[in-house]
Design a protein that fits this description.
This protein has no helices and eight strands. By secondary structure, it is mainly beta. The model has no long low-confidence stretch (mean pLDDT 95).
């Protein structure tokens, strides 16, 4: 699925992902290929991104919003200062 993580200043990630684990405000959750449409708020935490060849990337955010629709995931995030 296509993933974009965007902050007010720059794009943190733009590419394909096999699995995305997110710090939701009501608990952590995962997104995989063909996930149902969803809009959710995110809390302070790490986003886990598993890309091809099982390479994992981590991005820390303070908060954000995620939208999933037709295998496209867009995350509008406030970046962490860490």
């Amino acid at each position: 699925m296509q993933l974009q993580i965007i902050t007010p200043d720059k794009t943190l990630f733009d590419g394909n992902a096999k699995l995305i684990q997110l710090p939701g405000t009501n608990g952590s959750f995962e997104l995989m290929e063909n996930h149902a449409p969803i809009i959710s708020t995110l809390r302070n935490g790490k986003i886990k991104i598993v890309i091809d060849n099982n390479i994992t990337e981590w991005i820390h955010i303070n908060s954000g919003v995620v939208e999933v629709l037709k295998n496209k995931v867009i995350i509008l995030a406030e970046p962490s200062l860490n």
